[in-house]
């Protein structure tokens, strides 16, 4: 029994477990809106587009989170501008803009070598998270939860039916920018945990899992947030015994839960669909 408690004997593991759970929950809350809006590629794009912001922030002496946040917002605005002024489809626009930002970040990091470790940005390193970084995560997470808690109904309507939201007087342009800003800020906070490569999984998978399990958005928020937080805590805890990547463990757990839901979901799972087809064939 004492062996199972070993991770809690180390301060760095306790910090990693708590921060992973917090980030997992916040990302999962936001993932419901990302899933409903169909912005899975946007999450991937923003998580990679923050890299040049990290490099520029180091060059001018700012906290890397500030540069990463503004780079993410700038990339999102750039996607919107290119989409509005070209014939390109949205997936092509996202691909062009985010790879440009990511390449620019790599170029800056090689031209101006710094104490920033590219591997840490790409893959994360939650076990080495510092107290200032934890404070940064707490502030970003707290603000994101507060804004989402206050505006979730407006954001839900905007994501579900933008035309209807506009017709009843909601400022859809503001909600669009608000959701992009929250997505950028949360991606920055999650970089420490899983890195730019895997943060998109935390911003999509819990919402996709909950979407399979319920038809009510309020319930979807609770399921996704609980799934994200529990997988964050368990992933960090299990990574100690496996001596493996913490981010990898968290995302693999989230994927396992998604696959279980995909098969066993009461109404939208594969087994339920097979049962419904069998009933339809029998009745005909």
Automatic annotation (TrEMBL):
Bilayer topology: Multi-pass membrane protein
Localization of this protein: Cell membrane; Membrane
One Pfam family hit: ABC-3
GO BP terms, alphabetized: cellular response to iron ion; response to zinc ion; transmembrane transport
GO cellular component: ATP-binding cassette (ABC) transporter complex
Protein family according to the UniProt entry: Belongs to the ABC-3 integral membrane protein family.
Name by which UniProt lists this protein: ABC-type Mn2+/Zn2+ transport system permease subunit
Species this protein is from: Prosthecobacter dejongeii
